[in-house]
Amino acid sequence: MVERKKQMTRDKVSRLVNWGHWFAFFNGLLAIIVGTRYLSSVGYPETLIGWGYLAISSIGHFSFLAFIVYVVFLFPATLLLPYSKILRGYAALIATLGLCILLYDTVIFDDYGIHLSPFAFDLAWSDLNALLGNTSYIATPIGIILIELTAANFLWKRIEKIEKKQLGNKVIAFIGICFVSSHVIHIWADANDVTQITRFDDTMPLSYPATARSFMESHGIEGSTAPDKTYQTKSKQLNYPIAALQCKAQKQQNILIVSVDGLRADMVNSATMPFFSQYQLQNKQFTEHFSGGNQFNTGMFALLYGLQGSYSDKKAFEHTAPVLTQVLSEQGYHQAVFMPQDNADELANHAIFDGMDMHLSHSDIGSAQTDIKNTELFIQWQAQQASPWFSLVNLSATKHYDTPIGFLGIETVKPHLSLKPAEKVLYNQYRQSLFFIDQQIQQLLTNLDDQTLVIVTGTHGQIFSSNPREVNQDLSPANVKVPFVMHWPKTTSDTVNYRTSHYGVVPTIMGQALHCNNPITDYSSGYNLLQPSEKSWVYIGDSSTFAIYQQDEITVLGRHGKYRIYDIDYKKRLKRKLSAPELIQVMREGRRLYNK
Known about the structure:
Layout: H1 2-35, H2 39-42, H3 48-80, H4 84-112, H5 118-126, H6 128-132, H7 136-157, H8 159-164, H9 168-192, H10 195-198, H11 213-218, E1 255-260, H12 274-282, E2 284-286, E3 289-290, H13 296-305, H14 323-330, E4 334-340, H15 341-346, E5 357-361, H16 367-383, E6 389-395, H17 421-446, E7 453-458, H18 468-473, H19 477-480, E8 484-487, E9 494-496, E10 500-501, H20 505-513, E11 538-541, E12 546-549, E13 553-557, E14 563-567, H21 580-589
Parallel strand pairs: 1-6, 1-7, 2-9, 3-10, 4-5, 4-6
Antiparallel strand pairs: 2-8, 7-8, 11-12, 12-13, 13-14
Helix pairs in contact: 1-3, 1-4, 1-7, 3-4, 3-9, 4-7, 5-21, 16-17
């Protein structure tokens, strides 16, 4: 009798286990259906190979997730409480909770571009009403649990018939093949830069597709470095500008932007830059101006596109020129860029200078000699222009602490900052570079027509370090706060003390000089520099690491949601919680120009 009861218990548990497997499989199918919502965020595949990969990876991945949930939550309960009614209700509840979390993750991913994490949950909780929008968050869980209860009972009543068909091993084999195949295909795609496949890497939650790149590199094997043009596709359609621009050419004025790499705002004075210091006083100077980033590419992107740096590494901008230069071209401006070859190489695959004549210089002697060449080239070019012109002159000697051979600079002084011995050397060498750059700016501006609109600013700031990694990761005011001076014809000199940024350059030129009537939000993340910004924050950086400058604090965020908060001088780390409202605005701005 005892043996018979044990056998009956084993049979019951076995039946419950079989039922649990099929219930997990059913929820894997539901998860696949819910997972299709991610495609509305990243865009649908445009080729058969893309659809094929997405199909097998979805089947393998979501089925695997469903099985993991079964193993963790249902299998132990099957052994501890082998009662079908209790287990079916418990399983339906767990499955409903899992699907609701998945649904919520699709909402988070669509709005912020990240998956659920403690960081994302805090962010989303602050914006819950806007995310959910209506009462579907009440009806949806009720609907799901009804489906789950129905499915649980349906499978339990028919589990013996299902077992007789012996489909279990075939289903497991099929899912296993899909799971393994998706990773094998991804290894191939990663090694060959097949972007139609690799662009889905971050689409599904808890997805870590296998790659071959690190293995190949460790064994001295080089994969293809050329992007697969055949299969490249945009994750979403870029909507830039949002509406057709309405610009009326009136009296056209020449426009010059002088952008100096590594130009710190706190180092400009009458000793280091006598000409520029006097020029500031005679024109409109902005004392609280910030670049769009701490590197050349992000600073230049903000300057010419007027968009925050989260857009700078998007594929679409590899073939989308700034609306500023497009409008200038339509209005008959002759456009030219004068910059070091090294800087141009950083944006070689970018459309930022499309439609502009490129005048590039290089010198083996140093960047100061390159700046001298570019200054001379601009002066010659400008003297030959008859039609309205727009020019960007980029100088870089300060970034490299460089001066020409035999240059007579200024005396060494005690730093006004607290620096290490090696940093003190860089500090004074930097002052020499500023003195040299001041002379180049003087040559550029001296012979210009007074009716020329002139902007002189820094591409980014400078910290006194010879470590490139430290320089590239530093988002302090020293590395991003830059001088900004604007000569606007027939206007009086003025000092602007409210916060401004590079994002405002494009809206100012488009609205004031090119007479474009569109709302600024159609083409830029910024505001007209001549008016205080309505935003309480400034975004500085790119999509992987960026800082949010607010009124009295600076928040630095990494790609995976880790963040640090500093005081406004970047000297003291604050024990504060992330300000979610501002971050929500930042993340939405970074996705605003893409169609849903």
